[in-house]
Design goal:
alpha/beta; 5-stranded parallel beta sheet; globular; 35 helices; 11-stranded mixed beta sheet
Length: about 1000
Amino acid sequence: MTEYTGLEIAVVGMAGRFPGSSTVDEFWANVLAGEAGVRRFTDEELDAAGVSVERRADPSFVPMGGALDGIEFFDAKLFGYSPRDAAVLDPQQRVFLECAWHALEHAGHLGGGQDVGVYASASIDTYLLRHLWNNPAVPGGLQPLDLLLANDKDTLASRVAYHLDLTGPAITVQTACSSSLVTIHVACQALLGRDCDIALAGGVSIRPPVHEGYQHTEGGILAADGRCLPFDADAHGVVAGNGVAAVVLRRLEDAMADGDTIYAVVKGTAVNNDGADKVGFTAPSVNGQARVIRAAHDLSEVDSSTIGYVEAHGTATPLGDPIEVAALTQAFVSPPEACALGSVKALIGHLDAAAGVAGFVKAALAVQNGVVPPSPYFTAPNPETGLENSPFFVNREAMPWPGSGPRRAGVSGFGMGGTNAHAVLEEPPSPDPMPSGRSRHLVVLSAASEKSLEESRERLAEHLATGGQELADVSHTLRTGRRVLRHRMAAVVGGGESTTLSEAWIGTGDRRDVVFLFPGQGSQYAGMASQLADEEPVFRAALDECAALLPFDLDEVLADADRLTRTKYTQPALFAVEYSLAKLWEHWGVRPSAMLGHSVGEYVAACLAGVFSLADALKLVTARGELMDALPAGAMLSVPLGADDLVLPRDVCLAASNAPNMSTVAGTFEAIERFEAELGVTSRRLHTSHAFHSSMIDPMLGEFAALVSQVELREPRIPFISNVSGTWITAEEATEPGYWARHARAAVRFSEGLRTMLAESVTVLEVGPGNVLTTLARQHDLGGAKAFGSLRHPREDKHDLDTMLAAAGRLWIAGAEVDLGALTSDERRRRVPLPQYPFERARHWVELPGTAPREIEVIEVLPQAADTPVDGDLAVITGIWQELLGIARIGPNDDYFELGGHSLLATQILARITAELGVALPAAAIFEAPTPSKLAARIDQLRAAAVPAQDDEFARLLAEIRDMSPEELRAELDRERDSQEISQS
């Protein structure tokens, strides 16, 4: 068991793309197989890279390298870039941005809300130098500042912070070949200094054209045959590679407390410089390298004899390898019996600014999996290195980790110019078991398009089918660790249900307020919400709070179907369940903008609105139920007619107006039987004990009003609708005892109240047992609103969590505010690695000057109305947008910012519109009117506003003329004529 110093850093996420592998998993598989990503380029690739036939015929030309394929493709729409801007964006910036997304996603920390720092490095931007500079194929309208911002590597970290909304430090680090390992050192220091709570560190090196090959020079550092063989007798140089990688880091104690998956532990890092202790600026230094390695060991409080593997810088150059082995031998003051050496450059080439993080990822996976990676190329040690006389060796085959102590590895990165970095890694701690207290779990996904969402669903279903992860952890990671995008999916898993996600809910929705509906008596059933009470602590706590205020055993009543037919039990029990449900929804972040209760359900609304305290509400509801229970029995009848269509005899009362074609009437058994026989339409007798909301309630009203007068009534803090009026309750009504007496007697104006509520764009949520009110709501014109229930119908064979979680997921899909993290906030859960987001990439590229352009692949055409006629100002505006955004077709209602527009480009667009239409638009015009049609309308408004000013000037001149005498007018005209003659002469 390892001992921690309190200064350890956990590696909780990784992502990368390398020659021959597009993910970290593929990369590790290639490492174990010894599969090289460095390869020989085809003639077609060399043609596209602009390599001439003469250059290829040169014996010193080597048509090999570690290419990263697909660098010209980018999900520009996801990150808000127009095609024009995406085409000139340095591919290093694009690829690192996508890598950062995947790394944070892999860690389960892409959801935001934390102070996340970004520490990044990049190589020299050859895309700007080779592809864009003085190239007539570059899209028009770009200013020098546009190209600078799109290609300056100083913006790398800040670009990631902006697009991913990360609020910690954003620092670009440049120390040549050691850059990305130095980013990890800086990130670790920032975490220990609490500059941030999560750090993203890494680097990228993409130097287009990536399929160009290179010229070998005798005595240079590049290999003559395209093979990099670190520490081998045949080593004669390095090969260039392209790639990207990033790791996510946290303080170890935080990562363990939050249930992060930990891949490795950083025991310590160190950085220094050689100074002048070497033969030249670009030469390495034994003393400088030894010092940094020893410093990392000291800071880690690690005995060097416990280190079983070193991921070396390993460039395979005649000078570099011997110096590195000498430095390691000098630095390991307590040499191990045997320590393996390796270098990822043998497989993927030298990744320059990304080399250090690539080696770090390899070493982290090695200590995690307990495997010493192989170097299959190795034949015999380079005699200049002195490996035979050192504790170090190069293993040809993968081997188990030596020794019985904690697995530890070192990682070195040495920059040309002398900045050295070293890190000490250790195997991760064993995770604690985390059993789940719930039988069902909500799984959610979101994406920027329907296509990406469907691919995400397929990937997740395939992943779940393999098993191996707790569904509770999968749910937790997806709910709390992912970015929320427009197209959404939700499914409930667990309880033996299939994990194919084939029955998932899918959709999009604009944000709408949620309104709560509370059902009345008749919706109750034995066992309602019992499974919620077993598995949801917040619901259980609220239910217990209610139970303590009731004169009977609530749990017994909720389980007893016979007692639930008695009004004196039914009403307080129903109130307790609905109140507890509302508290659970509130805990889950769903708070009502307004409420509507049906009969006794209005008491729940009033209590939540603050009219009653909970104790007073339960006191009144209990008294109400007891008083009604003591009344003579009566009957109620559901009639398929609207309230206004009913013709009622004197002894039958309208009890409820439920829907446009649904009402309830009440009276004595005889009166209801006679009315039903004479009605002429099929009706349904309700299973109730009394004739509620009828004249049969009159005897209890005075006593109940007196009881209400004894409690404190306050103005509602949340709006709710009165059953009595069918419109918003007033403060005077809510605080008048007589209102609550009238409420028990008057007809329930539910249909009128629902229409009042639906006047606004809302989402309807029934907060109670069954689905009576959602069924009634769907008989109204919902105007596009969605209606959901919280608990199952008594005849449904479902778990309570199936319905409750489904409602939460569907509310989230519909755009409601749901705190998905709160669903399991009482549990300690683990964040686990899950399938990556499927970027929907399209080709955005400017070809090398002098090479044949490739046909652009169109991934998605922006939707627009077919054959929409566009002319006048709208045609001019649309044409300018199409040119400067680089989009072939733009519709009148397409949003500028969704098309990838930004503030700098907006100034150019407004200047062009001003020049071509002669209307000076204010700087904020495109923000206030972000579509072509709205901008055209804005121009019309500005022109119209200018006309009265011209008319006013004309009226003023006419008034002056009227005030002149004929002699004055003649003299003025003579002066005007004279001035024109002078100006023309």
